[in-house]
Design a protein that fits this description.
The complex is a heterodimer of chains A (464) and B (291).
Chain A lengths: L11 E2 L2 H4 L7 E3 L2 H8 L9 H5 L6 H9 L3 H9 L5 H7 L6 H4 L2 H4 L5 H14 L14 E5 L3 H13 L2 E5 L8 H4 L8 H14 L3 E3 L10 H6 L5 E4 L5 E2 L12 E3 H10 L16 E5 L3 H12 L3 E5 L11 H9 L3 E3 L2 E8 L5 E14 L5 E5 L5 E4 L2 E4 L3 E2 L2 H4 L27 E3 L2 H4 L4 H21 L2
Parallel strand pairs in A: 3-4, 3-6, 4-5, 6-18, 8-16, 9-10, 9-16, 10-11
Antiparallel strand pairs in A: 1-2, 7-17, 12-13, 13-14, 13-15
Chain B lengths: L1 E8 L4 E7 L1 H6 L5 E5 L7 E4 L2 E3 L4 E7 L3 H7 L6 E2 L1 E6 L10 H6 L2 E6 L3 H13 L4 E7 L8 H7 E7 L6 E2 L2 H10 L6 E5 L2 H13 L4 E4 L15 E4 L2 E4 H4 L2 E3 L5 H7 L4 H13 L12
Parallel strand pairs in B: 9-10, 9-13, 10-11, 11-12, 13-14
Antiparallel strand pairs in B: 1-2, 1-7, 2-6, 3-4, 3-8, 5-6, 14-17, 15-16
Helix pairs in contact in B: 2-10
The chains are: A alpha/beta (464), B alpha/beta (291).
Bound molecules: flavin-adenine dinucleotide (2 copies) and FE2/S2 (inorganic) cluster.
Chain lengths: 464, 291
């Protein structure tokens, strides 16, 4: 294959016109030939900067070298030393600001497509039936894991590999956290990918009890005192949606992105077969610029709407993964940047009929280092629409902290935990992921789950 | 799986079930609810917890068939199981948190309408166990659709009223409350549970009579844990999530017109599913009822 070594081997994708009307995966991934060609672009740097950029320090040149040799099983083993969910991370990590952002190839040309290679290895290993290895010896100690998102799954998997008896308690009826209720099928297939990764964790001996809301169905104290758990990991995520508190937000047709995405993903409402309803809007306005906003926008588009994303900063500040913004544009989503909603209007029956927005301009940098958007006086204008989806970020649910004696939280309701070990203010209780950091990323949640598994092992081995 | 241990038809469209769900049975308190799914494709349906037996591990629900999912639930028999049954959700009734001394001094009047009778029963029974017997007005459109009369009478001073006058006081629950008031009854608190429209009118009356009133709101819900915001409603000018801040609220502060409006959100689509559930594959549209 003749190729330009400065450029990534292009990845096959569904045609934008076609995919705008279906929920099948957008990116089709590399085949063997493409993956091996892309792997050849890796320079196998002595001091691999990509590894520094990876929150869980995957030995990236190590696994890419195995791909070059055509040894997928070997590559999978290298990744598995650091990551439990590679098929997922390969699809959803913000590679451009992590590993690929540091890649030396990226200085003059395009960085190596590390995410796509990770995905290739994980998908191929799955097709080959390669499974992670369980523990040979049991420790005879029980650990409860609360929440089945990436942090909980990782922590549970690692502890099971060490020989602990682990049970995950999940509030919803399906395991996976944001991976099942938040991120859409067209980005992360549920049956083919997420379910399989969960089955891998179960194959290690981890039990999962769904329909169990800790703080309601039982409490952390009861788990430890009555059900004999020696330690607990809290990976309950940051699930509470924010609203803007502008007039008209109670109108029919205004949703949180969480509600809209949960209906579509967890309840399968995008399919005609589902018993759960979802609004199929004609023209939807999505407020926000993160991954959640992109997912809501692209879901609404696939359900038949013309979609506008309204975001108060400029394109450079969009917090979503670059690939998602690119895909959204290709699919025909309209970006109204430097724009902020001020009021939602409803008709006499209470249904949304439009939204008033105001233009913004960028002023001085704020605490986050990004230039602060300020309103342009008198620049209000109306967008006609029948649906508004608020995706302004989320914060941790107080259900657990408010029902657990001695569990300290901070001002933002996040559980206070040691970064290295996950230890909280309460003995035997560890925490990590979005519940500790606030809404972040899959890979950081996974990293926190790993660190906590180590912390729990040390605690249970030493007794303090 | 959550096994159904008992099924009873209380009227032609109201059903009672005992379901094996030990975690809920152990931790439930009056005023809380649960979420049930019939099967893997089912919608998440919120229902109030009507009774619970921690020893037997069972929880009682009472539901009315109003749409597709409740209709499918009514087809289930003893020995069948629900795919999901999660709770207890929401906050227990304030009464559960009050010191017993104070509770004993309070004059309480419950108002139960239709299928709201069952959750009222849960609270009355709990109070009775604490040694408190409250008054209760139970309303129904007509005598033949009145449910749980004996059970209600056993745990309260029961006043029955029917809209058509076929039994008890002639008139709706507001007429009955006014009548008791006119007869000299004074209450420290009214707790009204039933159709939204009933709660709205009760609140209008108790505002005039200056009786603090608690209502149990049942907006559209998805997760029931505060995660989606579907259940949001305005109470005293503030946004509240019924599933975590409620479902019981100060009735004089609830924005009823808006809450009632929000119930219409999925009406068309729900109608379509209901007809499908009732008529199966034979439903091909065209009659206009489903859209
Ligand atoms: C729509 C959307 C798109 C995203 N896209 C990306 C992306 O492209 N890339 C990326 O890296 N990140 C993305 N993120 C962020 C990422 O998904 C999260 O940072 C990550 O899932 C956090 O993992 P977690 O394990 O901490 O929590 P979660 O995944 O939130 O899981 C928490 C779990 O705990 C359960 N739970 C909560 N409370 C209780 C309780 N009391 N009892 C029992 N169980 C409980 C919840 O039901 C949930 O299943 C996205 C997030 C959303 C919402
Ligand atoms: C906290 C809470 C407690 C509840 N407790 C009970 C209970 O103990 N017994 C009981 O029978 N019902 C109860 N409900 C109402 C019950 O959840 C709905 O009747 C049920 O969701 C209807 O589902 P469906 O698919 O059969 O009907 P759908 O097809 O979804 O709806 C049919 C009709 O019912 C109306 N409806 C839909 N959802 C609700 C709702 N939440 N409340 C009232 N009407 C609704 C719709 O507007 C529609 O016209 C409760 C609701 C909440 C939120
Ligand atoms: S039902 Fe989702 S927040 Fe209340």
């Amino acid at each position: 294959m003749a190729m330009d070594m400065m450029k990534k081997v292009p990845v096959r994708e569904q045609d934008p016109q076609v995919r705008a009307h279906n929920f099948e995966e957008v990116c089709l991934g590399y085949n063997k030939e493409e993956a091996e060609a892309e792997a050849l672009r890796c320079l196998s740097c002595k001091n691999p900067r990509c590894v520094e950029g990876c929150p869980v320090s995957i030995n990236i040149p190590g696994f890419i070298n195995k791909v070059k040799e055509g040894d997928v099983a070997g590559a999978y083993a290298v990744i598995s030393e650091s990551s439990a969910l590679p098929a997922i991370c390969g699809r959803v990590c913000p590679q451009e600001s992590q590993c690929e952002g540091k890649c030396v190839r990226g200085i003059k040309g395009e960085s190596v497509s590390i995410g796509k290679l990770e995905r290739y290895v994980a998908d191929t290993a799955r097709e080959m039936g390669i499974k992670p290895q369980g523990a040979s010896e049991k420790k005879g100690k029980k650990v409860a894991v609360i929440g089945s998102g990436p942090s909980g799954l990782t922590c549970a998997g690692d502890l099971a590999k060490m020989g602990y008896d682990v049970k995950i308690f999940e509030a919803l009826h399906k395991a996976g956290g944001v991976l099942v209720y938040g991120i859409p099928e067209f980005r992360l297939p549920k049956k083919a990918v997420v379910q399989k990764e969960i089955e891998n964790v179960q194959a290690l001996g981890v039990e999962i009890e769904t329909d169990c809301v800790i703080g309601k169905s039982t409490t952390i104290d009861a788990l430890m005192e009555e059900e004999g758990y020696d330690a607990v990991f809290v990976g309950s995520g940051a699930g509470l949606p924010k609203f803007m508190n502008i007039p008209g937000e109670q109108a029919l047709g205004v949703f949180s992105a969480n509600e809209y995405l949960t209906r579509s993903n967890l309840m399968g409402a995008f399919s005609e077969k589902s018993r759960t309803p979802i609004m199929r809007a004609k023209k939807a306005v999505i407020v926000g610029g993160g991954n959640v906003a992109m997912d809501a926008a692209r879901t609404a588009l696939r359900l038949g709407a013309e979609v506008h994303v309204v975001y108060r900063r400029s394109e450079a500040e969009l917090p979503a993964r670059a690939e998602e913004v690119h895909h959204a544009k290709e699919e025909g989503i309209i970006f109204d940047l430097l724009t902020n909603p001020v009021e939602i209007h409803a008709d006499e029956k209470g249904w949304v009929k439009g939204i008033t927005c105001i233009r913004m301009e960028l002023g001085e940098p704020d605490a986050s280092g990004r230039r602060r958007p300020v309103e342009v006086p008198g620049s209000e204008f109306d967008i006609e629409c029948d649906c508004v989806i608020m995706s302004l970020g989320t914060s941790p649910n107080p259900l657990i902290s408010s029902t657990t004696k001695g569990l300290e939280t901070n001002r933002r309701r996040c559980i206070v935990a040691d970064e290295g070990t996950g230890q909280t203010s309460k003995k035997g209780v560890f925490a990590g992921g979005d519940a500790v950091t606030g809404a972040a990323t899959v890979i950081l949640a996974m990293g926190a789950g790993k660190a906590a598994a180590k912390g729990i092992d040390e605690y249970l081995s030493s007794g303090n | 799986m959550f096994r159904i241990e008992r099924v009873e038809a209380l009227s032609s469209n109201i059903y009672l079930m005992d379901v094996y769900a030990p975690r809920i049975a152990k931790n439930a308190l009056p005023g809380q609810f649960l979420i049930v799914r019939v099967d893997e494709d089912g919608e998440r349906v919120p229902l109030t917890i009507c009774d619970y037996d921690a020893e037997a591990g069972t929880v009682q629900i009472v539901f009315q068939t109003v749409g597709a999912e409740s209709y499918r639930m009514a087809q289930l028999k003893v020995g069948d199981s629900f795919a999901d049954f999660v709770g207890p959700l929401g906050r227990p009734s304030d009464l559960c948190e009050m010191p017993l001394e104070e509770l004993k001094k309070m004059k309480l009047c419950f108002i139960a309408g239709g299928v709201g009778t069952a959750p009222v029963y849960a609270q009355l029974k709990w109070l009775k166990n604490q040694g408190v017997t409250a008054d209760c007005i139970q309303g129904a459109r007509s005598k033949d659709i009145l449910i749980m009369e004996d059970e209600m009478a056993a745990v309260s001073n029961l006043y029955i009223c029917t809209d058509d006058g076929s039994y008890g006081i002639n008139g709706n629950v507001c007429v009955a409350l006014q009548k008791l008031y006119d007869e000299g009854k004074r209450y420290d608190r009214v707790i009204a549970i039933g159709p939204m429209i009933m709660m709205k009118f009760v609140c209008q009356l108790t505002k005039e009579l200056e009786i603090p009133t608690i209502v149990s709101m049942n907006p559209i819900m998805v997760d029931g844990t505060g995660m989606c915001g579907a259940c949001r409603l305005m109470v005293g000018g503030e946004v509240k999530f019924a599933c975590v801040d409620g479902p019981e609220f100060d009735g004089h502060k609830v924005d009823f017109p808006q809450a009632m409006q929000r119930m219409a959100l999925y009406k068309t689509e729900e109608g379509r599913l209901y007809l499908e559930a009732k008529e199966g594959a034979s439903h091909h549209g065209g009659c206009g009822s489903c859209n």
